[in-house]
Design a protein that fits this description.
This protein has a single domain, classed as Maltoporin, Chain A, CATH 2.40.170. The protein has 707 residues and is mainly β. The protein is built from 8 helices and 39 strands. The longest helix has 13 residues. The N terminus is likely disordered. The two termini are 29 Å apart.
C-alpha cells in the first residue's frame, strides 16, 4: 500500500485479472446464493476482477523499481531480511501501509492499519486488540507476532505482548509506514517471530519540518490532543518529537449470558472508559539514531474475565511501558557495513478485579535490555551476506496476585532470564532469472524462576517451587525466487519459527503440593508459493498459497500450563493494488483459510474462513480534499464455547483535506457507516460470555494547525 501516484499513469490499468488459482479459489468458495450477509463479499470479489480488466498503460519496470517507497506500492522494504531490498526480491510476502494511507482512510490505531492488510483480521475483547494472521488468532496478546519500532524489538518481557491498540507508544500521526512480513521470521529475528513481523517506521524531523498541533473529538465522548515537532538542522542532525493524550467514555454494553445468570441484567454501564498518554521521539546524526518513548494506558474492563464479578464500578487494567534505544551504523570496509543496536526497557502492569467480597489485583514488573550486532557484506560476487548476534537480558520478570481488601498474597513469582542467538542469511543470485535466499538462526534461552503459591484453605498454607526453562533451537528459511520478467516474481518458501514459554506460562503452584507446569517451546512451520506481478508500475497483482503447522500450542486448560496439541492452517490470499493520478488509490484482497486442530480436525475459534477487503481513495472538492472509503467482510467465526459469532460487513468513510486554509488541515471520519451490529469471539477467560459486542456507528473530527 502506498501514497503517491505515478504522474504518467492517466487511466485505469489493464490486466488479465488476478492469478487463475485465485479466481478458481474464489469460485469454489463462493457464498451460497441468497445469503444476505455474504452478498457484499460476492459483490466486492466481482469488483476485483472487473478492475483487473481495464485498459493497460505500460511503464518501464526498471525505472519504477528505482523509485522510493512513497512513490510506489512496496518498492523497497527492510523488514524481511534486515536490509533494504525490493519487495519482489524479499523472501516473503510483504505488505506496506504509508502515512498517506493512514490519513486518507482515517486509521486510529496500529490495529486499524493491520486490519486493512491482506490475510489479517483483528479482534477486540474491549481490553486489548488481538491480531489474526491467515486465520490464526489465539488472543495471546499477540505473543506469536514480533513487533518492531524502527527495527527495535518491542514485545515486553512478561507476556511477550505485541501491542497494536492505544497501548502502542507511537501515535499513528507519527508513523511514516508500517511493514508487515507474513510467515515465520525466526531465521532472522528469533523468538516470537512466528506468524509474522510488524515494523513500525516513524516519521523524521525532515518530513515534519516544523510544528503541528491537532485536536479531535468523536463519539462516546472521545477527545484527543496531539503535538509534533520536527526539524533537520544544517549539520544534518534530525529531531522528531511527538506527544499525545486521549480519553473516551466508551459504550454501554449488554451481555445476554450475564443477563441469563442474573448479573446486573446483563448491563455494563460506564465500564468502557479509556485513557492514554504518550511521548515518542527520535534523533539521527552521522549514522547514530536514538529512539525513546513512554506510554501510560488505562482501560476499564466490562467483561468480567477469570470468573470475576460482573459490572463492578472500577474493574480496569493499567499498562506502562518505557524504552530508550540507540543505533550506530557505519561502513567499516569496502562492501562491509556494521550496525550496532542497544536498548533498555521497562514494563509495569496492574489490574483491579473483584471476586466474591475481595478486591483482587495482578501486579507485574519487567525490566530488560537488548543488544545486537549486524554485519552486511556485498563484495562477494552473486552474494549478499547478512549475519549477526542478538542478546536479550531480562533482569526482572516479577508477578504477584493478591487481594487488597482483605489483604492476602496468593501468588508470588520472581525471575530473570537470558536469550541470545546468532544468525546468517545469504541472498544468492544464481543467474539472470533465479535467486536463492538461505538463512538460519540458532537461539539459546535460559530462565530461573522462584514461585510461592498460597491458599488459606490448604495445609500447609503455602508451597514453594524453584524452576526454569532452558534449551536451544535452530530455525532455517529457504526461498527460491524465479523472475521471468523484471516485473514478475514467483517464490517457493519454507521456514520455521519458535516461541519459548514466557513467565506467565512458566509454572503454577497449588498448595499443599508444588505443581510444575512447564511447557515446551512452540514450533511453527510454513510452506508457501507466492506470485507477484506488476501489470505496470502502478498496478500490482499477488497471490499466496500456504500451508502451516503450529506444533505444541501452549495453553492453560486448568491451573497447569501445558502443550495442548497442534494446529494446521492452509489457504490462499490474493488481491491487487493500484494507484492513479491525483492521489487515487485502490486496494482489494481476498483470503480463504482453514484452521483446525490437527488431532481432531475441529475448527479453531476466531478463525474466519473468508476475509474480503476493498479500499478506494479519490480527490473531491478540488485536488486538496481526498475521500477515502474501505470495506471489510469477515465470515462467521467459532467462539471458545463452540457457538458462532456471525459474519459482518463494515464500511468506513474519511474526508481529509490538505492545508486548505493557510496552515489548517481537517479530517472527518465515519466508522461503521451502516451501523452493523456485530461481535468478536471472546476468550475462554470471559466465560460465560462467548461474544463481545463491537463498536457501533461512530465518528471523529480532527482539526490541525502547522507552523
Amino acid at each position: 500500500m502506498s501514497a503517491e501516484a505515478d504522474p504518467h499513469a492517466d487511466g485505469w490499468p489493464a490486466a488479465a485479472g488476478p492469478p487463475e488459482t485465485c479466481r478458481r479459489a474464489a469460485r469454489r468458495r463462493a457464498p451460497r446464493p441468497g445469503s444476505r450477509r455474504t452478498e457484499p463479499a460476492a459483490l466486492l470479489l466481482a469488483t476485483i476482477v472487473s478492475f483487473a480488466h481495464a485498459d493497460e498503460v505500460t511503464h518501464d519496470i526498471d525505472t519504477i523499481l528505482d523509485m522510493e517507497i512513497e512513490n510506489l506500492v512496496g518498492v523497497k522494504v527492510t523488514t524481511a531480511s534486515k536490509v533494504q531490498e525490493s519487495a519482489l526480491d524479499a523472501p516473503a510476502s510483504v505488505f506496506v501501509v504509508t502515512a498517506r494511507d493512514i490519513r486518507n482512510f482515517g486509521y486510529r490505531t496500529l490495529g486499524d492499519i493491520l486490519r486493512s492488510m491482506p490475510g489479517l483480521h483483528v479482534s477486540n475483547d474491549r481490553t486489548y486488540q488481538h491480531i489474526g494472521v491467515r486465520g490464526l488468532n489465539r488472543k495471546d496478546y499477540n505473543a506469536r507476532v514480533l513487533l518492531l519500532v524502527n527495527g527495535q524489538r518491542m514485545n515486553e518481557n512478561m507476556y511477550d505482548a505485541a501491542v497494536i491498540d492505544r497501548t502502542l507508544m507511537v501515535e499513528v500521526d507519527a508513523i511514516e509506514r508500517v511493514e508487515f512480513v507474513a510467515g515465520p521470521g525466526s531465521s532472522i529475528y528469533g523468538n516470537n517471530a512466528m506468524l509474522g513481523v510488524i515494523n513500525v517506521i516513524t516519521r523524521t524531523g525532515k518530513s515534519i519540518d516544523g510544528v503541528r498541533v491537532a485536536g479531535e473529538v468523536g463519539g462516546q465522548e472521545a477527545r484527543r490532543g496531539y503535538a509534533e515537532l520536527g526539524r533537520q538542522f544544517e549539520n544534518g542532525a534530525d529531531l522528531m518529537l511527538s506527544v499525545s493524550a486521549f480519553r473516551a467514555d466508551g459504550e454501554d454494553l449488554y451481555f445476554p449470558e450475564e443477563a441469563a445468570a442474573g448479573s446486573n441484567a446483563g448491563l455494563a454501564t460506564n465500564l468502557d472508559d479509556e485513557f492514554a498518554r504518550k511521548l515518542f521521539g527520535t534523533f539521527q546524526y552521522a549514522g547514530i539514531q536514538l529512539n525513546w518513548g513512554l506510554v501510560d494506558r488505562k482501560k476499564d474492563v466490562p467483561t468480567a474475565p477469570y470468573g470475576s464479578q460482573f459490572a463492578p464500578p472500577d474493574a480496569s487494567v493499567d499498562d506502562q511501558l518505557r524504552f530508550l534505544s540507540g543505533e550506530y551504523k557505519r561502513r567499516v570496509a569496502r562492501g562491509l557495513e556494521a550496525t550496532a543496536r542497544a536498548s533498555v526497557s521497562t514494563y509495569n502492569f496492574h489490574n483491579e478485579y473483584y471476586f466474591d467480597v475481595a478486591q483482587n489485583r495482578d501486579e507485574v514488573s519487567g525490566r530488560w535490555w537488548n543488544g545486537e550486532l549486524k554485519l552486511e557484506y556485498t563484495e562477494l560476487a552473486g552474494h549478499r551476506l547478512v549475519g549477526g548476534f542478538e542478546l536479550q537480558r531480562n533482569t526482572r520478570q516479577n508477578y504477584q496476585n493478591l487481594d487488597l481488601v482483605p489483604a492476602y498474597l496468593w501468588h508470588d513469582q520472581a525471575g530473570d532470564s537470558i536469550k541470545y542467538g546468532i544468525f546468517l542469511n545469504d541472498h544468492l543470485t544464481l543467474g539472470p532469472l533465479w535467486q536463492l535466499d538461505v538463512g538460519v538462526r540458532v537461539d539459546r534461552y535460559d530462565s530461573d524462576v522462584a514461585i510461592r503459591g498460597c491458599d488459606p484453605a490448604s495445609i500447609p498454607e503455602c508451597a514453594d517451587l524453584r524452576t526454569g526453562d532452558r534449551g536451544t533451537t535452530t530455525n532455517p528459511r529457504v526461498a527460491l525466487i524465479y523472475k521471468p520478467l523484471p516485473s514478475t516474481a514467483l517464490k517457493a518458501i519454507y521456514g520455521s519459527a519458535f516461541r519459548a514459554p514466557n513467565p506467565s506460562e512458566m509454572a503454577y503452584v497449588a498448595p499443599p503440593v508444588s505443581t510444575v507446569g512447564n511447557a515446551e517451546p512452540e514450533e511453527f512451520e510454513t510452506r508457501e508459493l507466492i506470485a507477484e506481478h506488476f501489470v505496470h508500475g502502478n498496478f500490482k497483482l499477488f497471490a499466496n498459497l500456504f500451508q502451516s503447522e503450529l506444533q505444541g500450542v501452549i495453553d492453560m486448560p486448568d491451573v497447569t500450563v501445558t502443550n495442548t496439541g497442534d494446529l494446521r492452517s492452509r489457504g490462499i490470499v490474493c488481491g491487487l493494488e493500484w494507484m492513479g493520478t491525483h492521489g487515487r488509490r485502490l486496494y482489494s484482497s481476498y483470503s480463504r483459510v482453514d484452521v483446525e486442530q490437527a488431532q481432531t480436525g475441529t475448527r479453531v475459534d476466531d478463525a474466519p474462513r473468508h476475509n474480503l477487503k476493498f479500499g478506494y481513495v479519490t480527490p473531491v472538492l478540488g485536488s486538496d480534499w481526498m475521500l477515502g472509503g474501505n470495506l471489510e467482510y469477515l465470515s462467521d467465526r467459532r467462539t471458545a464455547g463452540a457457538s458462532a459469532a456471525a459474519g459482518y460487513t463494515l464500511a468506513n468513510l474519511t474526508l481529509n483535506s490538505g492545508q486548505f486554509f493557510r496552515a489548517v488541515d481537517v479530517s472527518v471520519s465515519v466508522y461503521n457507516v451502516f451501523d452493523e451490529r456485530y461481535s468478536d469471539p471472546a476468550r475462554g477467560v470471559h466465560a460465560p460470555i462467548e461474544a463481545i459486542p463491537q463498536e457501533e456507528r461512530n465518528f471523529r473530527v480532527q482539526l490541525g494547525y502547522s507552523f
